[in-house]
Design goal:
The protein is an alpha/beta fold. It has nine helices and twelve strands. The radius of gyration is 19 Å and the shape is globular.
């Protein structure tokens, strides 16, 4: 099945491309400047040119703090863009898989968020993603929205790779320890997207709607950093000697972040039979791949 991937140069897009053949998918990757999802004409032109049977939207404005001072761009990419894709897909009779985020929630829950919980984003980034979700629901009857969280991968920019780089340069790192969530490997998320895509390709009954997908288990940014650096130390010497836990109040950012954003993934497991590994297991696989991709420098 031919699948158009928007945002094909991002960390999820790259993983989708890497795994496509394993699921017998013909991936057509597009990113700026070839496609601009904020422009309806660009979206329509790409759909006409590629004639896919499915679109996966991995394109997003992900600079959470910058969004606070660049709301127009964030809203155009994350809010309006998915709507343009949904409208074009609906007209062409093409299903749409759209990737969203845990940042649509405010972090006040005391249990993992379910798909039916009301959204209440704290900042512009979360607001823009919530707007995009609404646009997809309104514009494309055949849609799957996947909310994910704390995404990292072997390629692209992410928290894990930043920690590895800093740990090679510094004796001490101070990392926030009072925000809780579930780290998610881009490789695991890509695999989930392709499993759902196979359901669509096989023309079985597909339960359209919103789903949650993240790594199994809950930790903090400090816990994620500790585990990542412990794993990294098995591959290369690190300068780091201490990872100090700090409250979020000691690391001020332009955008407020949810203090708790774990996601309940029961629905996606039961509906599509998707097994989700413990986040520690997935992290180990990604760390190993990072160092295989950079064997000579010892740095990710």
């Amino acid at each position: 099945m031919k699948v158009l991937i928007t945002g094909g140069e991002g960390q999820l897009g790259l993983e989708l491309r890497r795994q496509a053949a394993e699921f017998n998918m013909q991936a057509v990757s597009r990113d700026l400047p070839d496609i601009d999802i904020t422009q309806p004409a660009s979206v329509a032109r790409n759909l006409e040119k590629t004639a896919p049977r499915l679109v996966v939207n991995a394109a997003a404005y992900t600079q959470v703090d910058k969004a606070e001072s660049d709301a127009g761009t964030a809203m155009a990419v994350n809010g309006d863009g998915p709507g343009h894709l949904a409208t074009a897909c609906s007209r062409a009779g093409i299903p749409l898989i759209h990737i969203s985020t845990d940042f649509v929630f405010d972090g006040t829950s005391r249990r993992p968020y379910r798909e039916t919980d009301p959204v209440a984003p704290l900042g512009i980034y979360g607001q823009s993603k919530a707007k995009g979700e609404a646009a997809v629901r309104e514009g494309a009857p055949q849609h799957i929205i996947i909310r994910t969280a704390w995404l990292y991968g072997a390629r692209g920019h992410n928290f894990v790779k930043t920690m590895l780089r800093l740990a090679a340069e510094r004796d001490e790192l101070k990392v926030v320890a009072d925000q809780h969530g579930s780290p998610t490997s881009a490789a695991d998320l890509a695999r989930a997207v392709w499993v759902i895509s196979r359901h669509i390709a096989d023309k079985g009954r597909v339960s359209w709607g919103t789903y949650h997908f993240c790594g199994t288990g809950i930790t903090t940014w400090h816990g994620l950093a500790e585990e990542a650096l412990d794993l990294a130390a098995r591959h290369t010497p690190l300068k780091i000697r201490r990872i100090s836990p700090i409250p979020a109040s000691e690391y001020p950012t332009a955008a407020r972040r949810p203090a708790y954003s774990a996601l309940d993934c029961t629905k996606i497991r039961h509906t599509f039979g998707i097994a989700i590994p413990p986040w520690q297991e997935s992290l180990a696989a990604v760390i190993e791949r990072i160092y295989k991709l950079a064997p000579t420098s010892g740095n990710p």
